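User:
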Amino acid sequence: MIPRAALSKSLRYFSSSARTCVHISHIGKTPIPIPPNVTITQSQTSLEVKGPLGSTSVPLESYMKLAYPQENVLTIAVEDAEVKKQRSMWGLTRTLINNAVVGMTEGFTVPIYLVGVGYRAALEDDPRGTTNGGNGQRLNMKLGHSHNVYVPIPAHIKANVPSPTKITLFCTDKHLLGLFAARIRKWRPPEPYKGKGVFIGDEQIRIKSVKKK
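Assistant: Predicted structure:
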């Protein structure tokens, strides 16, 4: 009787089809629709996007290839998808360009909810005005501390307080919007026992049960 280990080494497997190994970024290969009111200008190192809400630029690597297969449709490719860095930057660059197009046409909005007894927020004028890069307004929040929390609003952010427990932020840059929302959340992150804290968007946490002795 031939041992299984020796038998597996003696067998050879053949296939009639050629073996191919092609890496494709599913995010990077997705076309980007360009609205008619958006103008795109490409240079060797960046891509400038102009729209009704302003203009921004996205850095481009030398191996990025842009094409317009149809009118108002942009596709992105790389020179060699087998290179790991090019493959990873493929999807990232596509996401940055798409965010730039959406930001210059519609903008991004994120709601922030204050969950807790006595948690309140109000929008008021900043006594320091527009110094330090602010827009002249600040958030006055009560988050369970012994003092009120004052957060100046940057010039690129528009804030609104439709209710005492809800804050709405608007910005044309998704990255900067997320950074400022995380800055507010840092003052009272959600805790898992009573479910209190500052929640961003549809954020949810799993409630833990208190350990009883």
